[in-house]
Design goal:
By secondary structure, the chain is of the alpha+beta class. The chain has helices at about 15-65, 120-125; strands at about 140, 160-165, 170, 220-225, 230-235. β4 (about 220-225) and β5 (about 230-235) form a beta hairpin.
Length: about 260
């Protein structure tokens, strides 16, 4: 009489409570480690897109000048956020609520280059009813360079054309711009804590933000210079920003940052 040997099978019960807790703890640790990494990667991508858009605007400036005897566009009365009216018609630079980009409309193939992914939450504060109307108005223009002939200027690499901001056209000195009025003073006074626009401050130094629970951001703002190059400025009270960077008629000196 022969017997068949049955294969040995190890019976395994359900996970114990301790084992489950260990697994959950490991997963929680991995999430805690990976979440900041993923957030940093997403913000780096947003900053790259923003800088790329400013580079494209720099190319538009070059093309415009080549066709207009080295002059920049006259941005006129345009000092708003909007490209189109409610009927869908493109606004003119004589419209006070128009975005300054309309002055370059004939050289633009896609308005998206005037947008910045890190600007979206700020746009919702500006126009909560339809923030998409503001998405493509992410860069503030240095009003001082409107309708000027760049052939008469020196140090184009030290004159600001536009930069990350929530103000479409910066014309109120240290209230809107990065320089201050001297030692002991601060820039962007309308946007500082307690100012009329303090809720919009994080829309300026909006890249690589370090401080989440403080009024400060520790972040950066991208800048497009008149020669077409783009770089970034770390959050500052203005002590390291010469007024000349906004003044094409003056000596645009100062060190790069």
């Amino acid at each position: 009489m022969s017997f068949r040997r049955r294969p040995f099978r190890c019976k395994r019960g359900a996970f114990t409570l301790i084992e489950l807790l260990v697994v959950i703890s490991i997963i929680a640790m991995l999430i805690a480690i990976l979440t900041p990494v993923l957030q940093n990667a997403k913000e780096a991508a947003r900053k790259t897109i923003c800088k790329s858009n400013l580079n494209h605007i720099g190319l538009i400036l070059e093309l415009f000048q080549q066709s207009n005897d080295t002059k920049l566009a006259d941005t006129g009365a345009a000092n708003g956020y909007y490209w189109y009216d409610l009927s869908g018609a493109l606004k003119k630079s004589t419209d006070s609520d128009a975005y300054w980009g309309v002055a370059y409309k004939d050289y633009i193939t896609d308005n998206e280059i005037f947008g910045c992914p890190s600007f979206r939450r700020t746009a919702e504060l500006i126009n909560s009813a339809n923030p998409q109307r503001v998405y493509q108005a992410a860069f503030g223009l240095n009003k001082n360079i409107s309708n000027i002939n760049t052939a008469n200027l020196k140090n184009l690499s030290k004159i600001i054309f536009a930069h990350d901001h929530v103000e479409p056209k910066m014309e109120n000195g240290s209230r809107d711009m990065f320089y201050n009025d001297g030692p002991g003073t601060s820039n962007l006074t309308d946007y500082r804590e307690g100012g009329d626009r303090s809720q919009l401050y994080r829309g300026i130094f909006r890249h690589n933000i370090k401080y989440r629970d403080d009024f400060r951001t520790g972040g950066e703002a991208n800048i497009l210079w008149l020669d077409g190059h783009v770089d970034s400025l770390r959050e500052t009270n203005g002590d390291n920003v010469p007024k000349a960077w906004y003044n094409p008629g003056g000596d645009a000196g100062g060190d790069a940052f």
